[in-house]
Amino acid sequence: AADLKNRFGSNADPIALDLASPNAARELFAQVPSCDVLINNAGFANNGKFAKLHERDILDEIQVNVVALTHLTRLYIPGMLDRRDGKILNVASTAAFLPGPNMAVYYATKAFVLSFSEALAHEVRGTGVTVTVLCPGATKTGFQKRANVESTMLFKLGMADAARVAKAGFDGMMRGKSVVVPGLANKLVALSPKISPRRLLIAISAKFIEPR
User: Fold this and answer.
1) Most exposed: 9, 118, 168, 169, by fewest CB within 10 Å?
2) Average pLDDT over residues 48-67
């Protein structure tokens, strides 16, 4: 917020909330009851065999990646529809296009975000409200450290610049696109389920995110 004010003279009021809390979305809505643009960007991942992950970590991941995103969208979209104006940008991942052994819950949550966003985009057509889902690949943020995937093949092969990914998402949202997949390599990942055997894709996916 301070950086935005110093560089651009913009007013930004941060509200710190833990979206793993079931009441967080409602608390935010109580403080900010109207919204023209909603960007659901919060998310995190756990890396490891599902049976060995802590139960609390799994439930928190689903709460943040799925429940909070869905709840915030439900809270704000009625007002947008009433005004016949509004934009929603949900951040998914190329993980949304295929299963991910060793990050099974994360990949499944992002598949939800993609499916939910595309369906909602169809529902609101012609209302003045748009829904866009951004599906980036490996991106240089704090995500990989939190997920303990810094040493995996996926992140060793290179990461996209966060600012460029954000701009791609913003530009797509402003144009009203339903799905944005930035980068040629990521577009190929999105296309791969249509042209490759699913069992092969799962095996490759497991290798790319295998803990080392």
Assistant:
1) 9
2) 96
